[in-house]
Structures are given as C-alpha cells and as structure tokens.
Amino acid sequence: GLIFQVPSFQGVVVRSLSTSSPHDHPEHGRLVYKGNLAKTVLGVRFFSYSTSIFNLFMMPYIMLKSGIGVESLLVQAAFYGLIGFFTFVTPVTLHILTKGYVIRLYYKDEVDTYTAITYNAILAEKVTVFHQKDVKIPDITKMFTTFYAKTKSMLVNPTLFPNPQDYNHLMGYDKSSFFKFEELEE
Predict the structure, then answer these.
(1) Where does the chain show beta strands of DSSP type E?
(2) 3-state DSSP call for residue 149?
(3) Cα 46 from Cα 43, distance rounded (Å)
(4) Which residue in 26, 32, 15 sits closest to 132, CA to CA?
(5) Which of 66-80, 81-95, 108-122, 125-139 has the lowest mean pLDDT?
(6) Fewest 10 Å CB contacts: which of 8, 45, 123, 130?
(7) Alpha-carbon distance 77 to 82, whole Å?
(8) How far apart are alpha carbons 103 and 126 in whole angstroms?
(9) What pLDDT is recorded for position 66?
(10) What was the pLDDT predicted at 146?
C-alpha cells in the first residue's frame, strides 16, 4: 500500500501550502458564479481541435495509400468533403456555440461591474469586463445565450449561482421589480 500513500500525502502537502483557490482574483471582485461544464467544453473543443490536426496530417497519407486519387472524381470529392467538414466545420461550430460559455463570473459591488471568464478560439481564458447596465436580455430565448454583455453573447446557468440575488442583479431583475413596487406605492 506504499505506492498509494505517497501521492495522497503529496496532495495534502500541496493543499495545505496553497491557501487560496486558483480562482481567487481579488482584482476581478468576488466570484459569484462557476460554470459546471467548463471542463467539458474545454475537453470537447480540445478533442475536436486535435482530431482536425490529425486529419490534416493524415489526409495526404490516406490518399497515397488508398489510391483514391486514381478513382472517380465523385468519390474523391465526397471523401474530401467529409474530411474537410470534420476538420474545419466542427471546431468552428463548437467555438461559435461555446465561446460565450461563462466559466467564472466575478462581481465588484463598489463599481457594479462584472468580469466574465470565457474560452477564446485557442482555448485560453479570455476576460470580458462589463457593467450591469451593459447587460441586454434577448427578446426571444436563444439557445446559447442567456444575456448580451454589450454585444457579446454570454451563457450562464441560473441554477448555478450560489446566491440567486447575484443572478437577479446581473439580469437587472431586481431593478424592474423595484420600479413596479414604487408605482404601486403612488
């Protein structure tokens, strides 16, 4: 059982050394939201990119070995079309669908600004800072958009906000109900 004890012991040491979590960014404010599909989105996109790269390198080899070049033009076109589709269209589509997926969202109370962390095309974390007044809610429910920050579409899961009030403030729901309450008073 010695083999199993060593890694867990190292894990304990590492954990006790790093007191703050890797997601603590005081400059962004407090963490109000964490997307639970971040690893999945990253994994799927990474897999898609790696298969695309593999396809690009393998295509000339497959052509040489299979003798597709000799056969009919139609078979060749279909083959290229299929490989091309998976090589280029899939990563692009995945990027378009997942680029607005918010991995983490921070909020600064004193300035009423949010910092959204998303993935960019090369799978690096991208920071978008926006003000609550920049938030626009789409008129119709869009599949991969919860709200727009200025012009960028953002996707969050409302149920993952530890504090529902944070979600209400982000979407501006707290303001609209406040005004309705004021009107009732008058």
Answers:
(1) 30-34, 104-108, 113-119, 125-131, 135-136, 147-149, 152-154
(2) strand
(3) 5
(4) 32
(5) 66-80
(6) 8
(7) 9
(8) 10
(9) 67
(10) 93
**Bridge-partner residues for 33, per DSSP?**
105
59 contact partners, CB below 8 Å, separation of at least 6: 83
b/e map 60-71, b = 16+ CB within 10 Å: eeebeeeeeeee
Cβ pair 106, 30 in contact under 8 A: yes
- How many Cα neighbours within 13 Å face the side chain of 5? 2
Q: What share of the chain is helix, strand, coil (3-state, %, to 5)?
A: 55, 20, 25
Q: pTM score, two decimals?
A: 0.67
**Maximum pairwise Cα distance, the chain:** 83
The amino acid that residue 45 corresponds to is: R
- pLDDT tens profile 130-184: 999 999 998 887 778 999 999 999 999 999 999 999 999 999 988 765 454 444 4
User: Which of 45, 51, 52 has the alpha carbon at shortest distance from 95?
Assistant: 45
Least confident of 35-39, 100-104, 146-150, 169-173: 35-39
Three-class SS state of 62: helix
* 3-class DSSP state of 152: strand
